[in-house]
From TrEMBL:
Record-level GO BP terms: cell wall organization; peptidoglycan catabolic process; peptidoglycan turnover
Stretches assigned to the Lytic transglycosylase MltA domain: 1-94
Listed EC numbers: 4.2.2.n1
CDD domains in the cross-refs: mlta_B (cd14668), mltA_like_LT_A (cd14485)
GO MF entry, a single one: hydrolase activity, hydrolyzing O-glycosyl compounds
Record keywords, A-Z: Cell wall biogenesis/degradation, Lyase
EC primary class: lyase
Matching SUPFAM superfamilies: Barwin-like endoglucanases
Lineage, uppermost ranks: unclassified sequences, metagenomes, ecological metagenomes
GO CC aspect terms: outer membrane
UniProt protein name: peptidoglycan lytic exotransglycosylase
Catalysed reaction, written as an equation: Exolytic cleavage of the (1->4)-beta-glycosidic linkage between N-acetylmuramic acid (MurNAc) and N-acetylglucosamine (GlcNAc) residues in peptidoglycan, from either the reducing or the non-reducing ends of the peptidoglycan chains, with concomitant formation of a 1,6-anhydrobond in the MurNAc residue
Amino acid sequence: MPGKTLLYVDDAVELFFLQVQGSGRVQLADGSMVRLNYADQNGHPYQSIGKVLIERGELKLEEASMQGIQAWARANPARLEGLLNANPSYVFFREVPNSNDGPIGALGVPLTAERSIAIDPRSIALGSPVFLATTRPNSAQPMNRLVMAQDTGGAIKGAVRADFFWGFGKEAGEQAGRMKQSGRMWVLLPAELAPK
C-alpha cells in the first residue's frame, strides 16, 4: 500500500488502541499534538487481543477492558509483541488539521462526544437517529439518549452492537475503555420507511 510514514511512537499498546479507535491524537516530545484519522485498513480481519488473553487464561472476562489489557502489557513486556501479532488487522492513518472537533466519522463530519455511535452499516443506515438505552460503564446508572449513527468500525458486526463515542481526553478514554454494557437500540425511521 503506497503511503508515507507519519510518526514513530514509543508505546505499542497505545498504538494498538489508536488503531482500535480508528482516530486520535499523538503528543509529540515538544508537547504539540498531531491529529490522526482513519485512512485505510490492510484487509485482514480484526482479532480481539482481549479475547486472546481470556482464551489463554491470562485475563478473566471482566478484566479484559482497555485498562486490563494495558496492565497486562506493562507486566509482560517481553510477551507483548507476540500478543499484538495475534491480531492481523492493521489500520493506516492520515494526518488532519488540529482542532477541538471530534474525529471525522464515516459520514465525513466530526463525531460529537456522547451523541455519536459507530454501527455496522449493513444493519443500520449511516445517518440514522438511534435511541440508546443502556447504563454507564461499571454502573447501574441509566444512560438513555438520542444518538446518531455516524461512523463504522471493523469489529462492529450486526445490528446488536454499537460503539459509543465518549469524546477526547483522559476521562473519555477511561469511560471508553470500560464500556461493555448491554443495552437496547431503536432506529428511528419515517413511518413510510419503517418495516411493515
